Protein backbone atom coordinates (compact mmCIF):
# COMPACT_ATOMS: atom_id res chain seq x y z
CA UNK A 1 0.00 0.00 0.00
CA UNK A 2 1.61 3.20 -1.20
CA UNK A 3 -1.01 5.66 -0.03
CA UNK A 4 -2.23 4.89 3.46
CA UNK A 5 -4.82 7.15 5.09
CA UNK A 6 -5.18 8.04 8.79
CA UNK A 7 -7.04 5.57 11.02
CA UNK A 8 -10.79 6.11 11.02
CA UNK A 9 -10.78 7.84 7.62
CA UNK A 10 -14.33 8.31 6.29
CA UNK A 11 -14.94 6.41 3.05
CA UNK A 12 -18.31 6.85 1.46
CA UNK A 13 -20.43 8.89 -0.88
CA UNK A 14 -22.87 11.77 -1.00
CA UNK A 15 -26.42 12.15 -2.28
CA UNK A 16 -29.32 14.56 -1.97
CA UNK A 17 -33.02 14.02 -1.28
CA UNK A 18 -34.51 15.42 -4.48
CA UNK A 19 -31.95 13.53 -6.58
CA UNK A 20 -32.53 10.04 -5.16
CA UNK A 21 -35.74 9.73 -3.15
CA UNK A 22 -38.40 9.96 -5.81
CA UNK A 23 -41.87 9.51 -4.27
CA UNK A 24 -42.25 13.21 -4.92
CA UNK A 25 -46.01 13.03 -4.52
CA UNK A 26 -46.11 10.31 -1.90
CA UNK A 27 -45.83 9.99 1.84
CA UNK A 28 -47.40 13.37 2.47
CA UNK A 29 -44.53 15.32 0.91
CA UNK A 30 -45.19 18.94 -0.01
CA UNK A 31 -44.01 20.40 -3.28
CA UNK A 32 -40.61 21.96 -3.58
CA UNK A 33 -39.35 24.28 -6.30
CA UNK A 34 -38.18 21.39 -8.47
CA UNK A 35 -41.58 19.67 -8.48
CA UNK A 36 -43.15 22.98 -9.34
CA UNK A 37 -40.70 24.05 -12.01
CA UNK A 38 -40.94 20.68 -13.69
CA UNK A 39 -44.73 20.96 -13.77
CA UNK A 40 -44.50 24.42 -15.25
CA UNK A 41 -41.67 23.96 -17.74
CA UNK A 42 -40.86 20.29 -18.37
CA UNK A 43 -39.01 21.20 -21.55
CA UNK A 44 -36.21 22.70 -19.47
CA UNK A 45 -35.33 19.26 -18.12
CA UNK A 46 -33.07 16.88 -20.03
CA UNK A 47 -35.29 14.55 -22.08
CA UNK A 48 -38.26 16.01 -20.21
CA UNK A 49 -37.49 13.88 -17.14
CA UNK A 50 -38.50 15.31 -13.77
CA UNK A 51 -38.00 14.46 -10.10
CA UNK A 52 -41.04 12.23 -9.44
CA UNK A 53 -39.20 8.90 -9.44
CA UNK A 54 -35.43 9.52 -9.65
CA UNK A 55 -33.63 6.48 -8.12
CA UNK A 56 -36.59 5.57 -5.89
CA UNK A 57 -34.50 5.49 -2.71
CA UNK A 58 -37.71 6.18 -0.79
CA UNK A 59 -38.83 2.62 -1.46
CA UNK A 60 -35.48 0.90 -1.94
CA UNK A 61 -33.34 2.35 0.85
CA UNK A 62 -32.79 -1.07 2.43
CA UNK A 63 -31.43 -2.58 -0.75
CA UNK A 64 -29.30 0.52 -1.30
CA UNK A 65 -27.85 0.57 2.19
CA UNK A 66 -26.97 -3.12 1.81
CA UNK A 67 -25.05 -2.15 -1.34
CA UNK A 68 -23.27 0.65 0.52
CA UNK A 69 -22.14 -1.88 3.04
CA UNK A 70 -21.06 -4.25 0.29
CA UNK A 71 -18.78 -1.61 -1.23
CA UNK A 72 -17.15 -0.77 2.06
CA UNK A 73 -18.79 2.53 3.03
CA UNK A 74 -18.30 3.53 6.65
CA UNK A 75 -20.18 6.80 6.18
CA UNK A 76 -22.82 8.22 3.86
CA UNK A 77 -24.30 11.67 3.27
CA UNK A 78 -27.92 12.23 2.42
CA UNK A 79 -30.12 15.26 2.82
CA UNK A 80 -33.47 15.66 4.47
CA UNK A 81 -36.14 17.08 2.21
CA UNK A 82 -37.53 20.09 4.05
CA UNK A 83 -40.82 19.84 2.12
CA UNK A 84 -41.15 16.15 2.99
CA UNK A 85 -40.67 16.79 6.69
CA UNK A 86 -42.72 19.99 6.83
CA UNK A 87 -44.84 20.10 3.66
CA UNK A 88 -45.46 23.87 3.68
CA UNK A 89 -42.05 24.63 5.23
CA UNK A 90 -43.37 26.15 8.42
CA UNK A 91 -46.41 24.34 9.80
CA UNK A 92 -47.30 20.74 10.66
CA UNK A 93 -44.67 18.03 10.78
CA UNK A 94 -45.34 15.07 8.48
CA UNK A 95 -45.17 11.91 10.58
CA UNK A 96 -44.61 9.68 7.54
CA UNK A 97 -41.46 11.61 6.80
CA UNK A 98 -40.26 11.25 10.37
CA UNK A 99 -40.80 7.51 10.03
CA UNK A 100 -38.91 7.39 6.74
CA UNK A 101 -35.85 9.30 7.93
CA UNK A 102 -35.76 7.34 11.20
CA UNK A 103 -35.82 4.12 9.20
CA UNK A 104 -32.97 5.29 6.95
CA UNK A 105 -30.84 6.38 9.90
CA UNK A 106 -31.46 3.15 11.80
CA UNK A 107 -30.72 1.03 8.76
CA UNK A 108 -27.42 2.86 8.17
CA UNK A 109 -26.36 2.45 11.80
CA UNK A 110 -27.34 -1.21 11.82
CA UNK A 111 -25.00 -1.67 8.85
CA UNK A 112 -22.10 0.14 10.49
CA UNK A 113 -22.46 3.25 8.32
CA UNK A 114 -22.26 6.67 9.95
CA UNK A 115 -25.06 8.95 8.72
CA UNK A 116 -24.00 12.47 7.66
CA UNK A 117 -27.08 14.62 7.31
CA UNK A 118 -27.42 17.77 5.27
CA UNK A 119 -30.40 20.05 5.84
CA UNK A 120 -30.62 21.90 2.56
CA UNK A 121 -29.65 20.75 -0.91
CA UNK A 122 -31.25 23.20 -3.38
CA UNK A 123 -34.82 22.16 -2.51
CA UNK A 124 -36.83 25.09 -1.20
CA UNK A 125 -40.43 24.19 -0.27
CA UNK A 126 -42.71 25.83 -2.82
CA UNK A 127 -44.79 27.63 -0.18
CA UNK A 128 -41.58 29.21 1.10
CA UNK A 129 -40.44 30.19 -2.40
CA UNK A 130 -43.82 31.76 -3.04
CA UNK A 131 -43.18 34.26 -0.25
CA UNK A 132 -39.71 35.06 -1.64
CA UNK A 133 -37.53 32.10 -0.66
CA UNK A 134 -34.20 33.20 0.83
CA UNK A 135 -35.04 36.81 0.03
CA UNK A 136 -37.55 36.83 2.88
CA UNK A 137 -36.44 36.80 6.54
CA UNK A 138 -39.54 34.79 7.48
CA UNK A 139 -38.13 31.93 5.43
CA UNK A 140 -34.87 32.12 7.38
CA UNK A 141 -36.81 31.70 10.61
CA UNK A 142 -38.83 28.82 9.17
CA UNK A 143 -35.56 27.16 8.15
CA UNK A 144 -34.08 27.65 11.62
CA UNK A 145 -37.17 26.02 13.13
CA UNK A 146 -36.88 23.14 10.65
CA UNK A 147 -33.20 22.72 11.55
CA UNK A 148 -33.85 22.65 15.26
CA UNK A 149 -36.66 20.16 14.76
CA UNK A 150 -34.24 17.86 12.88
CA UNK A 151 -31.70 18.10 15.71
CA UNK A 152 -34.45 17.14 18.19
CA UNK A 153 -35.83 14.30 16.10
CA UNK A 154 -32.60 12.70 14.88
CA UNK A 155 -29.77 14.15 17.00
CA UNK A 156 -29.73 11.15 19.32
CA UNK A 157 -28.28 9.08 16.44
CA UNK A 158 -26.97 11.55 13.87
CA UNK A 159 -23.78 13.28 15.02
CA UNK A 160 -22.53 14.91 11.84
CA UNK A 161 -24.68 17.69 10.41
CA UNK A 162 -24.49 20.22 7.61
CA UNK A 163 -26.59 23.33 7.12
CA UNK A 164 -26.25 23.72 3.34
CA UNK A 165 -24.75 22.10 0.32
CA UNK A 166 -23.06 24.48 -2.14
CA UNK A 167 -25.05 27.56 -1.15
CA UNK A 168 -23.49 29.55 -4.00
CA UNK A 169 -25.17 27.28 -6.56
CA UNK A 170 -28.78 28.39 -5.95
CA UNK A 171 -27.47 31.96 -6.10
CA UNK A 172 -25.80 31.36 -9.45
CA UNK A 173 -28.54 29.13 -10.79
CA UNK A 174 -31.60 30.94 -9.50
CA UNK A 175 -30.52 34.59 -9.64
CA UNK A 176 -27.67 34.96 -12.16
CA UNK A 177 -27.42 32.27 -14.81
CA UNK A 178 -30.88 30.89 -15.23
CA UNK A 179 -30.51 27.19 -14.35
CA UNK A 180 -32.44 26.95 -11.05
CA UNK A 181 -35.84 28.28 -10.09
CA UNK A 182 -36.84 31.16 -9.89
CA UNK A 183 -34.48 31.70 -12.86
CA UNK A 184 -34.12 35.43 -12.85
CA UNK A 185 -31.04 37.48 -13.67
CA UNK A 186 -30.59 40.06 -10.95
CA UNK A 187 -27.28 40.68 -9.21
CA UNK A 188 -28.86 42.65 -6.37
CA UNK A 189 -31.25 39.85 -5.50
CA UNK A 190 -28.41 37.34 -5.88
CA UNK A 191 -26.37 39.17 -3.26
CA UNK A 192 -29.36 39.30 -0.91
CA UNK A 193 -30.02 35.58 -1.33
CA UNK A 194 -26.37 34.74 -0.67
CA UNK A 195 -26.35 36.91 2.43
CA UNK A 196 -29.61 35.53 3.79
CA UNK A 197 -28.48 31.96 3.17
CA UNK A 198 -25.53 32.74 5.41
CA UNK A 199 -27.82 34.20 8.08
CA UNK A 200 -29.96 31.06 7.87
CA UNK A 201 -26.79 28.99 8.24
CA UNK A 202 -25.71 30.93 11.33
CA UNK A 203 -29.16 30.55 12.91
CA UNK A 204 -29.07 26.80 12.29
CA UNK A 205 -25.63 26.61 13.91
CA UNK A 206 -26.98 28.57 16.88
CA UNK A 207 -29.91 26.12 17.15
CA UNK A 208 -27.43 23.26 16.99
CA UNK A 209 -25.43 24.69 19.90
CA UNK A 210 -28.64 25.01 21.90
CA UNK A 211 -29.55 21.40 21.11
CA UNK A 212 -26.21 20.35 22.67
CA UNK A 213 -26.01 17.04 20.80
CA UNK A 214 -23.47 14.85 22.52
CA UNK A 215 -20.44 14.34 20.30
CA UNK A 216 -22.16 16.33 17.56
CA UNK A 217 -20.46 18.46 14.92
CA UNK A 218 -21.95 20.90 12.50
CA UNK A 219 -20.57 22.28 9.29
CA UNK A 220 -21.32 23.55 5.84
CA UNK A 221 -20.50 22.03 2.46
CA UNK A 222 -18.89 24.40 -0.03
CA UNK A 223 -17.90 23.89 -3.64
CA UNK A 224 -14.53 25.57 -3.48
CA UNK A 225 -13.31 26.18 -7.00
CA UNK A 226 -9.72 27.38 -6.91
CA UNK A 227 -9.40 30.45 -9.04
CA UNK A 228 -6.21 30.46 -11.12
CA UNK A 229 -5.05 33.59 -12.98
CA UNK A 230 -3.80 33.16 -16.54
CA UNK A 231 -0.55 34.92 -15.66
CA UNK A 232 1.12 36.72 -12.80
CA UNK A 233 0.27 40.02 -14.45
CA UNK A 234 -1.43 42.15 -11.74
CA UNK A 235 -4.62 42.53 -13.80
CA UNK A 236 -4.98 38.74 -14.13
CA UNK A 237 -4.19 38.22 -10.45
CA UNK A 238 -6.81 40.78 -9.51
CA UNK A 239 -9.40 39.11 -11.75
CA UNK A 240 -8.74 35.76 -10.08
CA UNK A 241 -8.91 37.37 -6.65
CA UNK A 242 -12.35 38.81 -7.39
CA UNK A 243 -13.64 35.46 -8.68
CA UNK A 244 -12.34 33.86 -5.48
CA UNK A 245 -14.09 36.49 -3.34
CA UNK A 246 -17.42 36.12 -5.11
CA UNK A 247 -17.59 32.34 -5.50
CA UNK A 248 -15.57 30.94 -2.60
CA UNK A 249 -14.87 33.42 0.14
CA UNK A 250 -18.41 34.84 0.22
CA UNK A 251 -19.31 31.70 2.21
CA UNK A 252 -15.98 30.31 3.37
CA UNK A 253 -14.90 33.34 5.38
CA UNK A 254 -18.10 33.97 7.33
CA UNK A 255 -18.61 30.22 7.95
CA UNK A 256 -15.09 29.54 9.24
CA UNK A 257 -13.81 32.92 10.43
CA UNK A 258 -17.09 34.53 11.39
CA UNK A 259 -16.67 37.54 9.11
CA UNK A 260 -16.83 38.62 5.49
CA UNK A 261 -13.60 39.56 3.69
CA UNK A 262 -13.10 43.32 3.76
CA UNK A 263 -12.24 43.27 0.03
CA UNK A 264 -15.61 41.71 -0.76
CA UNK A 265 -17.49 44.33 1.26
CA UNK A 266 -15.57 47.08 -0.53
CA UNK A 267 -16.18 45.58 -3.94
CA UNK A 268 -19.93 45.34 -3.35
CA UNK A 269 -20.05 48.81 -1.79
CA UNK A 270 -18.21 50.32 -4.75
CA UNK A 271 -20.91 49.01 -7.10
CA UNK A 272 -23.74 49.76 -4.66
CA UNK A 273 -24.71 46.15 -4.19
CA UNK A 274 -24.37 45.74 -0.43
CA UNK A 275 -27.22 43.59 0.90
CA UNK A 276 -29.85 44.79 3.34
CA UNK A 277 -28.77 43.75 6.84
CA UNK A 278 -30.27 43.86 10.31
CA UNK A 279 -28.88 44.80 13.69
CA UNK A 280 -27.34 41.72 15.30
CA UNK A 281 -26.44 39.95 12.05
CA UNK A 282 -22.75 40.62 12.43
CA UNK A 283 -22.66 39.12 15.93
CA UNK A 284 -24.76 36.17 14.82
CA UNK A 285 -22.21 35.31 12.13
CA UNK A 286 -19.28 36.00 14.43
CA UNK A 287 -20.58 33.72 17.19
CA UNK A 288 -21.66 30.79 15.04
CA UNK A 289 -18.66 29.46 13.19
CA UNK A 290 -18.52 25.81 12.16
CA UNK A 291 -16.78 22.68 13.51
CA UNK A 292 -16.28 20.87 10.25
CA UNK A 293 -15.91 21.96 6.62
CA UNK A 294 -17.14 19.83 3.72
CA UNK A 295 -15.32 20.56 0.47
CA UNK A 296 -16.80 19.71 -2.93
CA UNK A 297 -14.35 19.83 -5.79
CA UNK A 298 -14.99 19.16 -9.45
CA UNK A 299 -12.96 21.58 -11.52
CA UNK A 300 -10.96 24.80 -11.22
CA UNK A 301 -11.84 28.27 -12.44
CA UNK A 302 -9.40 29.71 -15.00
CA UNK A 303 -9.58 33.44 -15.06
CA UNK A 304 -7.96 36.34 -16.89
CA UNK A 305 -8.38 40.11 -16.82
CA UNK A 306 -11.24 41.47 -18.88
CA UNK A 307 -10.09 42.33 -22.34
CA UNK A 308 -13.01 44.52 -23.36
CA UNK A 309 -15.01 47.01 -21.39
CA UNK A 310 -18.25 45.48 -20.11
CA UNK A 311 -21.29 46.33 -22.16
CA UNK A 312 -23.14 48.88 -20.01
CA UNK A 313 -26.51 47.53 -21.15
CA UNK A 314 -25.76 43.92 -20.25
CA UNK A 315 -27.03 42.66 -16.89
CA UNK A 316 -24.52 43.00 -14.07
CA UNK A 317 -22.88 39.59 -13.64
CA UNK A 318 -19.67 38.41 -11.98
CA UNK A 319 -18.10 38.33 -15.47
CA UNK A 320 -18.03 42.09 -15.29
CA UNK A 321 -14.75 41.63 -13.43
CA UNK A 322 -13.02 38.86 -15.39
CA UNK A 323 -13.07 36.60 -18.42
CA UNK A 324 -12.70 32.87 -18.46
CA UNK A 325 -10.08 31.16 -20.57
CA UNK A 326 -9.20 27.58 -21.45
CA UNK A 327 -5.71 26.76 -20.24
CA UNK A 328 -3.70 25.33 -23.12
CA UNK A 329 -2.97 21.63 -22.67
CA UNK A 330 -5.50 21.19 -19.89
CA UNK A 331 -6.89 17.71 -19.27
CA UNK A 332 -10.58 17.28 -20.01
CA UNK A 333 -13.20 14.77 -19.01
CA UNK A 334 -14.15 13.66 -22.54
CA UNK A 335 -17.57 12.50 -21.37
CA UNK A 336 -18.81 15.68 -19.69
CA UNK A 337 -16.81 18.73 -20.89
CA UNK A 338 -15.28 19.62 -17.50
CA UNK A 339 -11.59 20.15 -16.84
CA UNK A 340 -9.81 17.56 -14.71
CA UNK A 341 -7.14 19.12 -12.55
CA UNK A 342 -6.28 16.85 -9.65
CA UNK A 343 -3.83 19.20 -7.96
CA UNK A 344 -6.70 21.66 -7.41
CA UNK A 345 -7.90 19.54 -4.49
CA UNK A 346 -4.48 19.89 -2.85
CA UNK A 347 -4.38 23.65 -3.40
CA UNK A 348 -7.76 24.02 -1.69
CA UNK A 349 -6.65 21.94 1.28
CA UNK A 350 -3.37 23.81 1.73
CA UNK A 351 -5.29 27.08 1.67
CA UNK A 352 -7.56 25.77 4.43
CA UNK A 353 -4.53 24.86 6.51
CA UNK A 354 -2.70 28.11 5.97
CA UNK A 355 -5.53 30.63 6.03
CA UNK A 356 -8.44 28.99 7.85
CA UNK A 357 -6.87 27.70 11.05
CA UNK A 358 -6.49 24.17 9.65
CA UNK A 359 -10.11 23.48 10.55
CA UNK A 360 -11.25 19.86 10.43
CA UNK A 361 -12.41 19.14 6.90
CA UNK A 362 -13.17 16.37 4.44
CA UNK A 363 -13.82 15.94 0.75
CA UNK A 364 -17.61 15.87 0.70
CA UNK A 365 -17.96 15.58 -3.10
CA UNK A 366 -15.63 14.83 -5.97
CA UNK A 367 -16.60 12.82 -8.97
CA UNK A 368 -16.73 12.28 -12.66
CA UNK A 369 -19.89 12.67 -14.71
CA UNK A 370 -20.17 10.55 -17.82
CA UNK A 371 -22.68 10.86 -20.59
CA UNK A 372 -23.69 7.62 -22.27
CA UNK A 373 -22.06 5.38 -19.71
CA UNK A 374 -24.31 2.44 -20.57
CA UNK A 375 -22.01 1.72 -23.50
CA UNK A 376 -19.37 0.51 -21.03
CA UNK A 377 -21.63 -2.27 -19.70
CA UNK A 378 -20.41 -5.83 -20.37
CA UNK A 379 -22.54 -8.98 -20.83
CA UNK A 380 -22.52 -9.64 -17.09
CA UNK A 381 -24.09 -6.20 -16.60
CA UNK A 382 -21.09 -4.50 -15.01
CA UNK A 383 -20.03 -1.05 -16.13
CA UNK A 384 -16.29 -0.87 -16.64
CA UNK A 385 -15.60 2.67 -15.53
CA UNK A 386 -11.80 2.59 -15.45
CA UNK A 387 -11.76 6.34 -16.19
CA UNK A 388 -13.59 6.91 -12.86
CA UNK A 389 -11.10 4.77 -10.93
CA UNK A 390 -8.33 6.80 -12.55
CA UNK A 391 -10.12 10.03 -11.62
CA UNK A 392 -10.57 9.06 -7.97
CA UNK A 393 -7.05 7.71 -7.65
CA UNK A 394 -5.61 10.89 -9.15
CA UNK A 395 -7.44 13.06 -6.63
CA UNK A 396 -6.78 10.80 -3.65
CA UNK A 397 -3.03 11.01 -4.26
CA UNK A 398 -3.20 14.77 -3.79
CA UNK A 399 -5.46 14.44 -0.74
CA UNK A 400 -2.91 12.06 0.71
CA UNK A 401 -0.10 14.51 0.08
CA UNK A 402 -2.07 17.29 1.81
CA UNK A 403 -2.54 15.02 4.83
CA UNK A 404 1.20 14.32 4.90
CA UNK A 405 1.74 18.06 4.97
CA UNK A 406 -0.49 18.39 8.01
CA UNK A 407 -3.93 19.29 6.63
CA UNK A 408 -6.69 18.03 8.93
CA UNK A 409 -8.58 15.91 6.34
CA UNK A 410 -10.92 13.31 7.83
CA UNK A 411 -12.42 11.60 4.80
CA UNK A 412 -13.36 11.30 1.18
CA UNK A 413 -16.90 11.02 -0.17
CA UNK A 414 -17.56 10.49 -3.83
CA UNK A 415 -20.36 12.10 -5.74
CA UNK A 416 -22.22 9.82 -5.79
CA UNK A 417 -23.46 6.50 -4.47
CA UNK A 418 -25.73 5.54 -7.39
CA UNK A 419 -26.63 7.15 -10.68
CA UNK A 420 -29.18 9.80 -9.88
CA UNK A 421 -31.35 12.56 -11.21
CA UNK A 422 -29.48 15.82 -11.49
CA UNK A 423 -31.62 18.97 -11.62
CA UNK A 424 -32.19 20.13 -15.17
CA UNK A 425 -29.59 17.63 -16.43
CA UNK A 426 -31.80 14.78 -15.18
CA UNK A 427 -30.07 11.45 -15.96
CA UNK A 428 -27.63 12.82 -18.53
CA UNK A 429 -24.41 12.61 -16.54
CA UNK A 430 -23.86 9.43 -14.53
CA UNK A 431 -21.71 9.67 -11.42
CA UNK A 432 -22.54 6.57 -9.37
CA UNK A 433 -20.45 3.77 -7.93
CA UNK A 434 -23.61 1.80 -8.57
CA UNK A 435 -25.40 1.91 -11.92
CA UNK A 436 -29.14 2.40 -12.07
CA UNK A 437 -30.65 0.91 -15.20
CA UNK A 438 -33.43 3.21 -16.36
CA UNK A 439 -34.56 0.66 -18.95
CA UNK A 440 -34.79 -2.20 -16.50
CA UNK A 441 -36.88 -1.21 -13.47
CA UNK A 442 -34.04 0.87 -11.98
CA UNK A 443 -32.01 -2.25 -11.39
CA UNK A 444 -28.85 -1.58 -9.37
CA UNK A 445 -25.47 -2.99 -10.42
CA UNK A 446 -22.18 -2.20 -8.73
CA UNK A 447 -19.70 -0.69 -11.17
CA UNK A 448 -16.04 -1.59 -11.36
CA UNK A 449 -15.30 1.64 -9.45
CA UNK A 450 -17.56 0.45 -6.62
CA UNK A 451 -15.50 -2.70 -6.20
CA UNK A 452 -12.32 -0.68 -6.44
CA UNK A 453 -13.39 1.79 -3.76
CA UNK A 454 -14.35 -1.15 -1.57
CA UNK A 455 -10.75 -2.40 -1.55
CA UNK A 456 -9.51 1.13 -0.88
CA UNK A 457 -11.86 1.41 2.11
CA UNK A 458 -10.93 -2.05 3.39
CA UNK A 459 -7.20 -1.33 3.15
CA UNK A 460 -7.60 2.28 4.20
CA UNK A 461 -5.43 3.10 1.22
CA UNK A 462 -4.29 1.87 -2.16
C1 LIG B 1 -22.81 19.19 -7.68
C2 LIG B 1 -24.09 19.09 -6.84
C3 LIG B 1 -24.80 17.79 -7.04
C4 LIG B 1 -24.72 17.20 -8.45
C5 LIG B 1 -23.36 17.38 -9.14
C6 LIG B 1 -23.33 16.95 -10.62
O1 LIG B 1 -22.45 20.52 -7.83
O2 LIG B 1 -23.85 19.24 -5.45
O3 LIG B 1 -26.10 17.96 -6.57
O4 LIG B 1 -25.75 17.67 -9.23
O5 LIG B 1 -22.93 18.71 -9.01
O6 LIG B 1 -23.90 17.85 -11.50
P1 LIG B 1 -24.27 17.52 -13.04
O7 LIG B 1 -25.24 16.42 -13.07
O8 LIG B 1 -24.82 18.79 -13.59
O9 LIG B 1 -23.02 17.10 -13.76
Automatic annotation (TrEMBL):
- Tell me which Gene Ontology terms the entry assigns under biological process: carbohydrate catabolic process
The answer to keyword Hydrolase applying to this record is: yes
Keywords attached to this entry = Glycosidase, Hydrolase
Q: What is this protein called?
A: Glycoside hydrolase family 1 protein
Q: Which residues catalyse the reaction?
A: 365
State the similarity comment.
Belongs to the glycosyl hydrolase 1 family.
Q: Which GO terms describe its cellular component?
A: cytosol
SUPFAM superfamilies on file: (Trans)glycosidases
| One Gene Ontology term of the molecular function aspect | beta-glucosidase activity
Superkingdom of source = Bacteria
InterPro entries for the chain: GH (IPR017853), Glyco_hydro_1 (IPR001360), Glyco_hydro_1_AS (IPR018120)
Amino acid sequence: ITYRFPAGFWWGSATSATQIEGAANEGGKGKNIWDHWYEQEPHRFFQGVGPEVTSDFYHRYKEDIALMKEIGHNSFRFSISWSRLIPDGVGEVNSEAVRFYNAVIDELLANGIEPFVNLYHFDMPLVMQNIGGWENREVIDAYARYASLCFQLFGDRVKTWFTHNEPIVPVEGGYLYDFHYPNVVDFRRAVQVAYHTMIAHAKAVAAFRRAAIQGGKIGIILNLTPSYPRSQHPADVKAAHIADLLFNRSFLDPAVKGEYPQDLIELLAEHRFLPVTEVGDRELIKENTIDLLGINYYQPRRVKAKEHLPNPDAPFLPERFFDYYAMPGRKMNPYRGWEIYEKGIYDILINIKENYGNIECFISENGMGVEGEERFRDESGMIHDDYRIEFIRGHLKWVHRAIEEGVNVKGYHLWTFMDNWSWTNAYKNRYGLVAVDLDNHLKRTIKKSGYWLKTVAENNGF
